[in-house]
Prior knowledge:
This protein is of the alpha/beta class. Helix 10 (about 195-215) runs antiparallel to helix 11 (about 220-235). It has helices at about 10-20, 35-50, 65-70, 75-85, 95-100, 115, 120, 125-140, 155-165, 195-215, 220-235; strands spanning about 5, 25-30, 50-55, 90, 145-150, 170-175, 180, 240-245, 265-270, 275-280, 290.
Amino acid sequence: MVEVIKTTGDMKARAALSRARGDTVGFVPTMGALHEGHLSLIRRARAENDVVIISIFVNPVQFDRNDDYRGYPRPLERDLAMAYEEGVDVAFVPDVEQVYPEGYSTFIEVRGSLTDVLCGASRPGHFRGVTTVVTKLFNIIRPDRAYFGQKDLQQAAIIKRLVRDLNMGVEVVTLPTVREADGLALSSRNRHLSGEQRRTAVSIHRALTRATELLISGEMDTAVIVCEVRGVLNEGGIARIDYVSVVDPETLEEVSEARPGAVVAVAAWVGDIRLIDNTALGVGPESQLFMHLNVETV
Length: 298
Ligand code: PAF
């Protein structure tokens, strides 16, 4: 079985032991409910490091809605079995009091243009919660490398900035979004979708594919692309769109002219479930991992 550690003290000691032995440590932070997207991160961590540590912690301070926090899936036994299958050495599974003990009062915030836009605009406090917990986890584990999915494009950009700004000395590795065979990006929230909502949700991927097609056909004006993407979402039954934006993947600044590498990012509601996805324009379908492909050969 995977070694399960529940306290920050034990986790610090275990990670320090690995470092003292000269082992490199790869870290995959998660909120559990593991899916193929997490597993692709774990596999890469396994391939690149001597020791692989994951964390499973549903972080209360990054939720802007209490019902979302309470309803977040927590299939711990299943997660640990999956982690074991992938060769994870240690799972850090703290409870809330371990991470935020009585009197906890320190928060880490990346400020400005990276956090004000996209999900930052509609989920106040979310990224502050993410950067706070990631800083804590990095301080406890002090990994050599940490792994994040590109589906959470903004999160990845913010964490890279955090690590750079605070000289954390962690290599941040980002990996492509893993998708269902029909293109829906894997997300722990997908399990809340009803059958009909699941069919509706796939129009997010359809809309992003349309954006790529437009670029290939020579359309450079991002205003036109955004309008088309919105149209495909609406046709697919998605009326409540949080944002559709074409941005530079590192600065997250909106670009007015589409060029290869710019990212189209979408956040939209299917019923009461908020889904996000993005695609890099002109980079081609090979930049996305599909579940029916062998991840290692892509
Ligand atoms: O991406 C996630 O699952 C979370 O935001 C993270 C990075 C584990 C922090 O809680």
